[in-house]
Amino acid sequence: MVQVYAFGHISGAHFNPAVTATFAFRGKMPIIKALLYVAVQLFGGATGAMTAYAVAGPGDLAPFAPAPDLPNPVASIFLAEFLYSFALCLVVSCVATAHADDPNSHYAICIGFTLLSTVSAVGPISGGVINPAVGTSVDLLSTAVGGVPKYTWVYWVAPLLASVLAAALYSGLERMAAAEQEAAADAEASGEDRSASLAFDLPLRVVVFEFVGTFFLALTAGLGSQPLAVGAILTAFIFSSAGFCGGDFNPAVTFGAMLRFGVTRSELWKTAIVMLAQTTAGILAGFAAFAVSDQVGWPHPDGAQGSYGAFVYEMMWTALLVTVVLNTTTPVFTPAAGSPPVEHLYRARSSVHGLAIGMTLTAGIIGANKHGSGSGGVFNPAVGTGLSLAALAREHDATGAVWMYWVAPLIGAAVASGVFRLLHVAGDEAEAGAGLLADGEGMGSAAADSMSAGLLQHPLDAGFVGAPSINGESEAGVGQGAAAAASAAGTETSRGP
């Protein structure tokens, strides 16, 4: 993280052949230049390994190897390295090269947080390397002290395959966003009913990114990561979601946003599809976690108060989580005359909202074990369902509490939505009276834009909000449409990797 901030303006701060390969596969870097980057990275890795040898001594230098108790070590370390290399390459593409939220100050935080989550989740399994230069250098130097590296190939093949997939996914998401922007602009220019355009549908990019983000949140939680690591991966993907979706990654958050915006019946199908995508991702992540390691955690109330205490804790902390989401990612009031433009208020909050949400989750997980009656600190029906079903497949009956991980968070989300609307009712009325909410439809109209996560402008501020998200968050930034077109045409920023 520190090195990305320090050297990003000089070289892009890749520090990883897999990241460089992602740029090359996306056509953002010439092949010859990419190969030179990789050569320098390998030299840097070898120099670092030799320095470690000189400082720590030969006794501390050993080749990377899987945990000794894995039933299928090669498959486990390959899958672990592949999945988290994919996460890193995708996050880098989203936060360090995209224009959707340009400029931002969180790109290096997201990259560092992804690495932190990787080491916590799969460090004991594969070393959490996700960097061919690091894996190769340490493995080869270990031979000088009698080490016998057997898995060096994994630390090349898995990350490079992941970089291909990440490049393909990100390029596809860019094309989807550009096509939706063009369709909406054409419909507006021709005076057609915009409800018939792509912008009023539920874009595929929303469903895809919600699936991916929820998958890695559930996977990191299931692999027994530290609370900070779980909150960190959520933070990274929330910031990465700018321009693609609202970064809910939680059916309870989506449900709370639906209630906050007063979604009409005709729009409920969008909420249902997003929640289904999140739940499916959670289930798949649960099985992936068991494929990586047998030491997978699953939620099961085990405190002195049993299910009752766990239910109350899950409900209350989900209410807090959804409250933080709504207050940091959706309109909260109408500025008074003479106050700064509303876009500045959005920018101020959008620079920290991912951290606020991620750290709320971290604090909740920490408190769950001591004060949450052993609830596990889930606060997410997709995570609770996925890990419980995967545990059942491994002959651990954990399905008895699945109902609680749905009912408690949804009640908490409903409470949070109600409190939010109660506290901001004056602002909502002012917006409606000023004509900022469209055609007397009130919050239902805003919700239609929000839940579609399309490229329609939010009624609150047509000058800034370019892409209302699934939870009402506006992350597209100024000129998002032009940025999407520029990005599709191959232009690139170079703030970081």
Would you write up a description of this structure?
This protein has 497 residues and is mainly alpha-helical. The chain has one domain (2-489): Glycerol uptake facilitator protein (Up-down Bundle), CATH 1.20.1080.10. The protein is 64% helix and 0% strand. It is built from 19 helices and no strands. The radius of gyration is 23 Å and the shape is globular.
Helix-strand blueprint:
Elements: H1 2-11, H2 17-25, H3 31-56, H4 73-96, H5 107-126, H6 132-142, H7 154-190, H8 204-222, H9 227-240, H10 251-260, H11 268-292, H12 306-329, H13 342-350, H14 353-371, H15 381-393, H16 404-423, H17 425-433, H18 443-452, H19 480-489
Helix pairs in contact: 1-5, 2-3, 2-4, 2-7, 3-6, 4-5, 4-7, 4-9, 5-8, 5-9, 6-7, 7-19, 8-9, 8-11, 8-15, 9-14, 10-11, 10-12, 10-16, 11-15, 12-14, 12-16, 15-16
Helix fraction, binned, reads 55-70%
Encode the helix/strand succession as letters.
Answer: HHHHHHHHHHHHHHHHHHH
The CATH architecture: Up-down Bundle
Between the first and last Cα atoms, what is the distance in angstroms? 11 Å
Largest sheet: none
List low-confidence stretches: 195-199, 339-348, 430-497
What's the number of domains? Answer: 1
Q: What gyration radius follows from the Cα positions, in whole Å?
A: 23 Å
Describe this protein with a few key phrases.
single chain; 497 residues; mainly alpha; Glycerol uptake facilitator protein; 19 helices; 0% strand; disordered C terminus
Condensed summary:
The chain has 497 residues and is mainly alpha-helical. The chain is built from 19 helices and no strands.
